[in-house]
Amino acid sequence: MISRLLTFWMPLTWLLFVTICAITAGWLPLPAPDIMDYDHQNASPGTMVIMPKETTAEAVPGARNQVYWLGTDSMGRDMLSRIIIGARVSLTVGGTAPLIGLVIGGLLGLVAGYFRGFTESIIIGCMDVILAFPGLVLLLAMGFYFGTNLWTLILSLGFLSIPAFCRVSRAVTLQLANREFVLAAKMIGCTNCSIMVREILPNIAIPLCVYGLIIMALMIVVEGVLSFLGLSVPPPTPSWGGMIAAGREVLGEAPHVCLIPAAVLFLTVLSLNILGDTLRGWARPL
Amino acid sequence: MTVLIVSAITFAMIDLLPGDAAIVFTGPETSVETIAAIRHEMGLDAPAIVRYFRWTLRAVSGDLGLSLVTGEPVWDALMMRLPVTLELLLFAQLMALSLAIPAAILCARNPDGTIDRIVTTVSFASLSIPNFVMAILLVFFFVLRLRWLPATSFVPLADGLTANVRSLLLPGLSIALVEWVILFRVLRSDLITTLGEDFILMARAKGLSSTQVLFRHALRPSSLNLVTVIGLQMGYLIGGALVVETIFALPGIGRLLVTAIYSRDIFMIQGCALWITLGYVTINLMVDVLYAVLDPRIRRERTNV
What is the pTM of this model? Predict the structure, then answer.
């Protein structure tokens, strides 16, 4: 019971929490992520700012008391709101890039594993060429060529994840291709296409999706690395990797600026890894 | 073959980019005529295929062009920085192995025991820490809090071994602490499988101690997959080196590439990408050879065919 709590419910809760925060960021009572408060740079978590009363001379119209729950960064911007907005980048990349790989790679693997022979050799050959590049170098080059914005990033990450999905889908298809239900479908005269879609696809879908969780973790890490190097989304948009990079400058005097986004990134990746591992264990008996 | 395709893609990718090499070379406020003249001088106005062949021919003879920013030959810059990266990779891999092998042996001895559970959990957590976060954590604790090590100063091997190792300790560790998990997992599961085989039972029945069984009988047949994984992981390791070199300001190829990308130094990027990719392909070839050395069955298969 406790182990299920740790390996399933807790990671799931964290992921849902981050996702919901990211989606509802606009409605949460938070300062905007790009408002700079020069009176409170590198404020430690939980700093309270009490504005002067409306009646006094220094009052700023419309200003409210607020709390920097996670402190502020070196430009006095609210960390909590930046982390939540930054989650949008990480989650968009983590959610959509594996989807591209899942669909294209999954289908290619299915075709390769089902038809074997020449088709298989060609598909595997193409995958080997993609794999022959060290991933990060290819990504950097792609970002350099296509410019660095969210969609090219997602497309190139998705492209790079194709071989991994292709391998998994081909391996599962190979196991299934000679099973009784596939042979039976062949016997009653189903076309290859309908066998693949109606008999094999439902069976490879679950292992592929579970594998997708682990790739999702990897994509979030890679996005983190790229934004850490300043080669992901351009600067005004907050991203976790970018925040970690900015916080590194003040690591000595205000470690929270760097360590809080790092912890959030770690927890998210850890949750995805644990969840992927648990679900893989559950999905195994095909 | 792979090398050819890889070089063609590298070239195509860099060649098609929107920023024009001639503009980078001369600065943004140059007249159209000067740019056209420089384009002609650099051979940039020739068709792409012609330029690709020129580039390949020159690359084979060791001429990768001049850096657009510093003007030094790309080949020399690469040669100068190669030892640093190689040393870092080797060091990191050694540390990862020296963590992974003992851990795997300890765990495989008693699968699902207390030690196994603890180590597996720790490995899971450490896998989820990206390289750059690990590097920052290490800097935070060892440099800023405990003040055990210097922060960012690379000491070349020529200036003494101890100083060199000291300066590579944190960069190497931040790669190794993520890398060891992969090696550990593969070796652990293979060791558990091997320990269930008949010849291990036989060795035990002969009265060999469990240490002897582990080291002399089980380790070698279990290390096959490990070797493959080491080769496959080189891609990630190179990526890791790229980030870690940037963080610790090590003068390696990874940092050269990142700097080149910041300054849109086209020929430098081409050269770096080509070298890294070539290195990666070569390592994987070497792994195949090593495989045959470790497993006599593969050698025999090849001679029979």
Answer: 0.82
